[in-house]
Amino acid sequence: MKKFLSERRKTVTVVVALLVLVLAVAGGYQLWHSVQPKFQDVTIELGTDSVTLSEFMTQYADASLVSFVTDPASINIDETGDVSVNLAYRNKEETVTLHVVDTTAPTAEFLEVYEAPLNYEPDAEDFVSSVEDYSETTVSFTETTGSVRSGEDYDVTVVVTDASGNSVSQDCTISYVWMKEAYELEYGDHLTKQDLLVNTNLGTSLIEQSDVNEINESEVGEYVISSSNGYKTVECTVTVADTTAPEVELQDVSVYPGTEVELDDFVVSATDLSGDVELSMTSEADTSEVGSYTVTIEAEDIYGNVASVDATLIVKTDDVPPVFSGLSTISLTKNSSAPDYLSGVTAVDAIDGDCNVSYDASSVNYSSAGTYYVTYTASDTSGNVASAKRKVTISHDSADTDALVTSIVAGLGSDAKGIADYVRSYVSYNHDWGGSDPVWYGFTNKVGNCYVHAMCTKAILDKKGISSQLIWTTDKTHYWLIVYVNGGWKHLDATPMAGSIREACKQYMNDAERLATLRGRTWDTSLWPACN
Which side of the chain, N or C, has fewer Cβ within a 10 Å radius? Predict the structure, then answer.
């Protein structure tokens, strides 16, 4: 046993020594690692969306033991500069610095050629169409550029610089122009020089009016106008285009079922500057059923411009009866035979046309003077019935007049003044003279002028046996009677009067009283007896 231990002692010693060495190295490493920095400063470019915790960690930091002390949302990365950030490792806080820098030049889109109007004052901003950068930028020329008024093209260098001094530049050209490259003129509109100018106040004299006039007289097409300022020549292409659709006015159409309707029935007018307009109906106008329908009509000119306009087609129920014509008054003499009541009479229906006509003349008494009515009837195939009356007059004779007066006299007394009162109230006043028989006219129509009133009164007085004479003014503007009563002649006026003379005319009057009511008129005293 001793021999075995003696032989193995050297080996055990070596093993023990190695173990001691390993333990020593491990402890040293842990001590070294524990003192290594866990955080580092970070530099980011302006415009970075966000900064993460891992960016602040060194290779010696354990991510599970690291945390933000500073709220990440409060860290300002939208401006250049240094920002202090507090972090913690094993709950031990440490401050690091976040450097926000801007080393990126702006991104800019330049106009290689800027077309400027005459007398243009160069502005560097005009040469940059867009700029992208995370800070404010300025646009400038590389050197001060004064006004160039000669109209010659020249070059400039445009620089876009951001707040951190980063810049981008490009060589650009100012090209002076006074006339637009292109202009579109609607056919029918009037072109002026100002329409073609970039600046309506500059360059008018450089364009020939004759060139403008020629275009105004031209048809649809493209035309080129050239203009020179002595240094350069510019051109403008003027396109005369017709983009205006025709003007169309339609009307609604109302018909009965089955009526044929055509496009022209709807069109009131269709006009266009080009002249020709082609009309079409987009769908067939169906009139087979009652209802209201939209009809669309298109109008196209020779350049393909189309106007689409709607009208209404109304298919209506046939509720309109035929219409009569030829029903003028028939005048017959007493005891005439019945006339042809259908001669010249028609009844026309909007759908059926001429319709059969029937009449009823049973009320007409051909042996008695008076006014009668014949009733006409007509119907269409839809059952609509039209009815109308026609006047038939049977003229009277002297016997009729005498009989009429006799019937009136029967109800009256024999006082002349009372008879005049009756006529005055029964027959109203108008300007009619009563024709060939004023007595018949006055008593049947209950109207007439002073002559009618006088003659109606005289007819009754004659029946009563009271003497009377018709009298009139010298100018024949008024008629009345003189009557013989109480042994003498008196004036008696049966005409309805107005105003202050009304009551006077209701009484018997002598000559002086009559003159007072005539207002300056008089009568021929030699023709009638005096009234005292």
Answer: N
